[in-house]
Write a structure and sequence with these properties.
- The complex is a heterodimer.
- Chain A starts with a strand and ends in a 6-residue tail after the last helix.
- Chain A has nine helices and 13 strands.
- In chain A, the strands form three sheets. A six-stranded mixed β-sheet of chain A has the order 5-6-7-3-8-9, with helices on both faces. In chain A, strands 11-12-10-13 form a four-stranded antiparallel β-sheet, with helices on one face.
- By secondary structure, chain A is α/β, with parallel strands linked by helices.
- Chain B is α/β, with parallel strands linked by helices.
- Chain B has two domains: 106 residues, Periplasmic binding protein-like II (D-Maltodextrin-Binding Protein, domain 2, 3-Layer(aba) Sandwich), CATH 3.40.190; 242 residues, no CATH class.
- In chain B, 69% of the residues lie in helices and 6% in strands.
- Classes of the chains: A alpha/beta, B alpha/beta.
């Protein structure tokens, strides 16, 4: 059940929202979709779901197109949250679940399990407008997964939630993956993607600038980080050749280096100067990669 | 797929049926109908309790007019009594001011030997008493004047009796006068029902769609169900609601009219609205035009509702549609008096006006079958075209969120939508 996008392009008049995007999203994994605001993430999702026409290219899921006959296999959490404000949580989920082809009894038992899991069973008969935004989001998440979809698309699932709720939702996402759901999710919170995804893609102005497995992406980025904590002033390290960025903090600094070789030079430069508490060579964070690939064009 | 259509239909129907707004408006309408049907009874209960005779004091300066005037007033069979007042005019005025009498009338003879009167009262706004007095005096004056001229009373009666006038149609199939009167009643009712029905339920559909859009639940909906299914599920759900409401109203209306037939028959209601002679075909046309008219405007409303981003804009965007309905209604009201005019004939083929104006022609005139069929076909064609366009706009419109909602968005919505 791989989802395959081939040379997908979407233009609105003269503006190009998605430009020649080719992706392969493996099944039973979590695929992260990163990008600044307006990078084309939501448009891509809408095209995958068949809500919008492609200008060029093709999208196939398991060698077939996605249409309404498969809607019971697909779950979608849109970026713009919305439920019927006047309906109770139960009526809401029953209606949305039935539109995904479920039977009422199944919906109710699934719903109770989910409400229990999110520690909010007392909201069952409350109107949605009475719930807080975070709790509404939980209900909406339930509506996207209640029918046990094979493919789940989550557009910014964690935005606007407090850390406790983020953890609950993350846990639920991981459980769904383990149960065999293929999940695509978008975010601009790098740490979430780093934590959850095996594969990712960074979209910039509609074109993928980084694409692949998390480990390969980090490795191929080349640059690494060195963290130094020492009892003496390490200010001079920024002049070591190969150091790209220097960020001091109270008892040391963080250096971004061009390649692993530079680390050896820094280590040499440190030796004999005094007591070094930490010397750590780290993989680059997604944040570094994102800023480098996307942020560069803003400067 | 079919299944989802019924899920949406049932959801729309039940949700609206259970809503407070629907229950309240229905109950108020029903109460109003029962109230209107029992109007005569209600009035009777009030009047019978306080059947007070209005007494009017009369000072006759001529001593000869009063008895004749009194018999004239009595002939009007009203709850008014004229009493000859013994005393001066000043005393009489005081008595009126104290409320003993409703008013004071002084009768005298002018220089032409004709009676004239002056009426004094505390309540000059009360027209019924003074009007009746004036009428009585007028008749008295005519009688006196003719007597003075030496004309017989029977001659006067002949002069004033209404002229005999009969209408006979020469066209064989044209409707008789009674028939026409009855169909006019039906057309009248039907036009009103269509007008209110389309306006009310069209509004409801636009609101329904706009609510889903403004609450952003729409994006989930269109990812599970095709917009066409959604749109028609909603339209049929609201139609079912309308049928429920109208059935209730008709049922209650019929029952209360039936139980109050006696008190209403005097009011000319049955002669105008009695349907005993209405042709079955006219009733069938009424149902067909009602359904098609509803479908046409409902599709339009759903389409317009789908392009607004905020519920506040919904009213604004369906204004053109509302104006169209009002225009059709105005035309029909105008056409009720001149159903044969070219103007009515031409507009009855314009699909947006067809439900009202073609029905008017079918009901009031004998028009060739091809004309009504052509009107219906054009109407069905327009509904199909609107449904196709509507579905595309709906699909694009639900993804369209902008600051302003104008009709320009229709085009944008079409571009956004997926080609079928």
């Amino acid at each position: 059940m791989t989802l395959k996008l081939t040379n997908v392009t979407k233009r609105f008049g003269s503006a190009t929202a998605v430009d020649n995007l080719s992706l392969e999203i493996p099944e039973k994994q979590i695929f992260g979709f990163l990008g600044a605001n307006g990078a084309g993430k939501t448009t891509t999702f809408r095209m995958i779901l068949g809500l919008m026409d492609l200008t060029e290219g093709s999208i196939s899921w398991n060698d077939d197109s996605i249409n309404y006959s498969k809607s019971h296999l697909i779950g979608y959490l849109p970026e713009e949250r919305g439920l019927y404000p006047k309906l109770t949580v139960k009526d809401q989920l029953v209606y949305l679940g039935r539109l995904r082809g479920m039977q009422k009894n199944d919906i109710i038992s699934e719903m109770d399990a989910w409400l229990e899991k999110f520690h909010v069973p007392e909201y069952r008969d409350k109107k949605v407008e009475e719930l807080s935004k975070g709790n509404q989001q939980k209900i909406q998440f339930i509506s996207a997964v209640i029918h046990k979809p094979k493919l789940l698309i989550l557009d910014e699932p964690f935005s606007g939630l407090d850390p406790v709720n983020v953890e609950q939702l993350k846990k639920a996402v991981v459980e769904l993956k383990e149960a065999g759901t293929s999940i695509v999710f978008s975010s601009h919170r790098m740490e979430h993607v780093e934590e959850l995804c095996e594969h990712l893609c960074i979209l910039h102005h509609g074109t993928p600038v980084v694409h692949g497995g998390l480990k390969e992406v980090k490795r191929s980025f080349g640059k690494k980080n060195v963290v130094v904590r020492a009892d003496f002033d390490v200010n001079y390290l920024k002049d070591v050749p190969g150091v790209v960025r220097y960020k001091p903090f109270t008892e040391g600094c963080e250096l971004q280096i061009e390649s692993e070789d530079v680390a050896a030079r820094i280590f040499e430069a440190l030796s004999g100067k005094g007591f070094v508490r930490t010397f750590d060579l780290e993989e680059p964070t997604l944040n570094d990669i994102f800023i480098e690939k996307v942020g560069a064009s803003y400067e | 797929m079919n299944n989802k259509f019924f899920v949406i239909l049932a959801h729309t129907y039940l949700n609206r049926l259970k809503s407070k707004a629907f229950i309240i408006t229905t109950v108020i309408t029903l109460l109003l109908i029962v109230g209107l049907a029992n109007f005569q009874n209600i009035i009777d209960t009030f009047t019978s309790e306080e059947e007070q005779v209005d007494k009017v004091a009369v000072i006759d300066e001529t001593d000869s007019l009063f008895s004749r005037f009194q018999s004239q007033v009595k002939a009007q069979e009203d709850v008014m009594e004229v009493v000859e007042f013994d005393g001066s005019e000043e005393e009489a005025k005081t008595a009126v001011q104290e409320g003993e009498y409703k008013g004071l009338l002084t009768l005298s003879i002018n220089e032409n030997d004709l009676p004239e009167g002056t009426y004094y009262s505390n309540q000059m706004s009360e027209l019924s008493v003074s009007g009746k007095l004036q009428q009585g005096l007028q008749q008295l004056k005519v009688a006196v004047a003719t007597e003075n001229a030496g004309i017989e009373q029977s001659t006067i009666q002949q002069i004033y009796s209404p002229v005999s006038f009969e209408k006979v149609s020469l066209a064989e199939d044209s409707k008789s006068f009674e028939e026409l009167n009855e169909t006019r009643g039906l057309v009248y009712i039907m036009l009103f029902l269509l007008y209110f029905g389309v306006l009310m339920y069209g509004n409801m559909i636009a609101m329904e769609v706009a609510t889903e859009k403004s609450s952003r639940v729409m994006e989930i909906l269109i990812s599970s169900v095709s917009p066409v299914t959604q749109m028609f599920g909603k339209i049929c759900g609201i139609a079912l609601l309308g049928i429920t409401q109208f059935s209730l109203i008709l049922l209650v209306g019929y029952q209360s009219i039936k139980s109050n037939m006696e008190s209403m028959s005097g009011g000319g209601f049955t002669s105008y609205f009695g349907f005993s002679n209405v042709q079955i075909s006219t009733l069938l046309y009424a149902i067909v035009f009602f359904l098609l008219g509803y479908l046409l405007y409902a599709t339009l409303a759903a389409m317009l509702g789908s392009i607004v981003s905020r519920i506040e804009d919904a009213q604004q965007v369906i204004t053109p549609m509302t104006l169209l309905i009002v225009a059709a209604f105005m035309l029909a009201m105008f056409g009720l008096n001149v159903p044969e005019s070219t103007f009515v004939t031409v507009t009855s083929f314009i699909p947006f006006f067809t439900p009202m104006l073609m029905f008017l022609r079918v009901g009031m005139l004998e028009i060739p079958f091809w004309e009504s069929s052509l009107g219906i076909l054009l109407l069905i064609g327009t509904i199909i075209v609107l449904a196709v366009i509507g579905a595309r706009v709906y699909r694009g419109g639900v993804l369209l969120y902008g600051r302003s909602s104008s009709l320009k968005d229709l085009k944008k919505a079409m571009q956004l939508s997926k080609k079928e």
